[in-house]
């Protein structure tokens, strides 16, 4: 009885003769009972004729009543009072795409996604080519000048991996830019250390060293080569295990946080603890970082919360309150790094894929468009670093790669 609401377009082919017409569903059902055998799950049926050896082909297309109150708004005119199921689906798809401003990414086919990615990359390349060329023509030690970094959306471009010329065969533990040259260093558990020239396009390898039976957990450029004696000059103790250490910009103070959630401030000249406080809301500390302008101190915890403090308050108050509690990580905050201009704080967790965020410090808000890719690129990051004047940002991940990003706001390397 419910089938009587539909009209059927029927075309019967037998030999060289073809008949086409509209029939009510009950009429077709009667015809089927008299000799039509339907192929299950298809709109194609076979008619066996008693007086002919030829088979006839019946094409059945159900037409939907468009005057129903749930479908009336899909009509474009009275001529569309009945519509095929296929056409109705297409009309609904068009209306959805119009409401969404185009096909959403989750509804795109693989070919559509590849074409869109290729088109977006070409557009970005054309837009940023002049800026990149201008940046890469400048080298050496120079003072960077930059307008204030805007919040909200970070202008960033994904580049070729920094170590693409020689990926690590195991987890990468270190990525660091040279303080004056256009060079980046990577090291990891595959017992190797490598240097690459950074141009954002090919990043050619300069040198790679294999260290026999020596997995590298941490490597770092020395800013000064004046240290000759290699003697221990200071030894300081705290309660509990040390989870992180950071120096003030002038090197006169050292900040250390413990797994118990306490932060200690030591004076390097006198080896005296000048302040001690509990990181707000922290049960177990995991990381710590100090900004280069001496304004901020960031403390990471096992819960993923990163508290950003005023360094002045940390030096003078027994109970400083954070300027901001950044809660964008859901697992332990294991890596914190400030950029050289102290406008960005990079935070990451190596316990979860894609768990990296960039914080705009003047507004204490998180940039909404990083990580930028819709597919996994970052994976699990264990080390973060900015180039000397913030033109590039890179990280070391568990796949042996060092994803590289060009921060377009900054004109210098």
UniProtKB/TrEMBL annotation:
This is U3 small nucleolar RNA-associated protein 18 homolog. One of its GO terms (cellular component) is Pwp2p-containing subcomplex of 90S preribosome. Belongs to the WD repeat UTP18 family. SUPFAM superfamilies: WD40 repeat-like. Residues 121-134 have a biased composition (Acidic residues). Pfam families: WD40. GO terms for biological process: rRNA processing. Keywords: Nucleus, Repeat, rRNA processing, WD repeat. Gene3D superfamilies: YVTN repeat-like/Quinoprotein amine dehydrogenase. The keyword rRNA processing applies. PROSITE patterns: WD_REPEATS_2, WD_REPEATS_REGION. Residues 78-143 are annotated as: Disordered. Its main location: nucleus. WD repeats lie at residues 242-276.
């Amino acid at each position: 009885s419910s089938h009587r609401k539909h009209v059927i377009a029927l075309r019967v082919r037998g030999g060289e003769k073809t008949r086409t017409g509209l029939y009510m569903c009950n009429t077709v059902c009667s015809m089927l009972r008299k000799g039509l055998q339907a192929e299950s799950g298809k709109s194609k049926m076979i008619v066996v004729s008693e007086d002919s050896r030829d088979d006839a082909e019946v094409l059945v297309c159900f037409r939907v009543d468009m005057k129903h109150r749930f479908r009336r708004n899909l009509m474009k005119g009275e001529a569309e009072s009945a519509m095929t199921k296929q056409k109705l689906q297409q009309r609904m798809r068009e209306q959805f795409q119009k409401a969404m401003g185009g096909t959403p990414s989750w509804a795109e086919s693989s070919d559509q996604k590849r074409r869109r990615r290729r088109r977006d990359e070409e557009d970005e390349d054309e837009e940023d080519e002049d800026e990149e060329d201008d940046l890469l023509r400048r080298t050496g030690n120079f003072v960077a000048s930059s307008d204030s970094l805007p919040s909200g959306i970070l202008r960033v471009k994904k580049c070729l991996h920094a170590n693409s010329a020689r990926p690590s065969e195991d987890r990468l533990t270190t990525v660091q830019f040279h303080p004056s040259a256009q060079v980046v260093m990577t090291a990891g558990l595959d017992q190797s250390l490598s240097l690459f020239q950074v141009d954002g396009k090919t990043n050619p390898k300069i040198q790679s060293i294999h260290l026999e039976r020596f997995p590298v957990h941490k490597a770092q450029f020395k800013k000064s080569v004046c240290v000759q004696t290699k003697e221990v000059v200071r030894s300081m103790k705290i309660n509990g295990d040390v989870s992180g250490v950071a120096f003030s910009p002038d090197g006169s103070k050292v900040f250390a946080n413990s797994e118990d959630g306490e932060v200690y401030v030591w004076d390097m000249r006198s080896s005296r603890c000048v302040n001690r406080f509990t990181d707000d809301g922290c049960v177990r500390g995991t990381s710590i970082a100090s900004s280069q302008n001496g304004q901020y101190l960031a403390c990471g915890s096992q819960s993923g919360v990163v508290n950003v403090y005023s360094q002045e308050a940390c030096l003078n108050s027994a109970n400083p309150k954070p300027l901001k509690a950044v809660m964008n990580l859901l697992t332990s905050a294991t890596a914190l790094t400030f950029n050289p201009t102290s406008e960005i704080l990079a935070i990451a967790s190596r316990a979860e894929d894609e768990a990296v965020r960039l914080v705009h410090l003047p507004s204490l808000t998180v940039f909404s468009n990083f990580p930028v890719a819709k597919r996994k690129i970052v994976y699990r990051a264990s080390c973060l670093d900015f180039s000397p004047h913030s033109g590039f940002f890179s990280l070391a991940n568990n796949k042996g790669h060092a994803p590289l990003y060009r921060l377009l706001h900054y004109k210098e390397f």
